């Protein structure tokens, strides 16, 4: 068995699960050493630090970008995967989907609108993802869609 210190940045790949004992957790991270998805590596990780385990089980979500440090254990049996025992964890960036928690997507026929509680303006897209424009408020959505269809003949 070989053990080496290791620090990596990667995305949380699976929902963290409680570990074998109290104050422990296990999870997987996907690390992309290049921009090619074929080079992605999934790391099996564990922690016995109760502070990190609590954060993993309560605050951290799939897709969060993490910076972890610990010790990588490579077993003598090549069939057994290497494991990273994490003793330090930092969230570098939350998963992009979190930004949508304060927003609501709604469908208007062949159009999709995004309501945001923080603003009156309403972005409008076609269902195919093409930009239509921004309605100044919810009452102006119909006019924006009518103008788009008049100019473009519909695009849903």
Structural description of this entry:
The protein is built from 2 helices and 10 strands. A 5-stranded mixed barrel has the order 1-3-4-6-5. Strands 7-8-9-10 form a 4-stranded antiparallel β-sheet, with helices on one face. The model has no long low-confidence stretch (mean pLDDT 86). It has helices at residues 50-58, 141-152, and strands at residues 2-12, 17-18, 25-31, 41-47, 65-74, 83-93, 103-108, 111-116, 122-126, 131-135. The radius of gyration is 23 Å and the shape is elongated. Strand 8 (111-116) and strand 9 form a beta hairpin. By secondary structure, the protein is mainly β.
Distance between the termini: 58 Å
User: Major β-sheet, in short?
Assistant: 5 strands, mixed, barrel
The average pLDDT is 86
| Low-confidence runs | none
Strand order of the biggest β-sheet = 1-3-4-6-5
Shape: elongated
Helix content range of the residues, please? 10-25%
Q: Structural class, from secondary structure content?
A: mainly beta
The fraction of residues assigned to DSSP E strands is 35-45%
β-strand number: 10
What letter string, H or E per element, gives the SSE order?
A: EEEEHEEEEEEH
Briefly, what is this?
The protein has 156 residues and is mainly beta. Helices cover 13% and strands 45% of the residues.
Helix-strand blueprint:
Elements: E1 2-12, E2 17-18, E3 25-31, E4 41-47, H1 50-58, E5 65-74, E6 83-93, E7 103-108, E8 111-116, E9 122-126, E10 131-135, H2 141-152
Parallel strand pairs: 4-6
Antiparallel strand pairs: 1-3, 1-5, 2-3, 3-4, 5-6, 7-8, 8-9, 9-10
